[in-house]
Amino acid sequence: MAKVKGVVIVNTERCKGCNLCVVACPLDVLALAKEVNHKGYNYAVQAVEDKCNGCASCATVCPDGCLTVYRAKVE
Fold first, then answer.
1. Distance, CA of 15 to CA of 57 (rounded, Å)
2. 3-class secondary-structure state, position 21
3. CA geometry: angle at 11 spanning 7 and 15, to 5°?
4. What's the pTM value of the predicted model, to 2 decimals?
5. Shortest CA distance to 63 belongs to which of 48, 44, 46?
6. For residues 36 and 1, which has the higher predicted lDDT (pLDDT)?
7. What mean pLDDT comes out for the span 44-61?
8. How many helical (H) and strand (E) elements, i.e. helices and strands, does the chain have?
9. β-pair type (3-10, 67-74)
10. Mean pLDDT value across the chain
């Protein structure tokens, strides 16, 4: 059975750091960055690289549509 690996891409300039995606992630993959974007918000980042399973819970709860989740089968 093939494993599924996910990658979360964040549009850092649109993200307002509401933290909803961080809370929604069942695997604790996301976190808020210490850096800020041009608007002064701490944006979300994928803090753990190989743990994401691509469930897209984070993208579902994002009110501004800042997250895109990609899934790939890993053999």
1. 16
2. helix
3. 115
4. 0.88
5. 44
6. 36
7. 95
8. 2, 4
9. antiparallel
10. 94
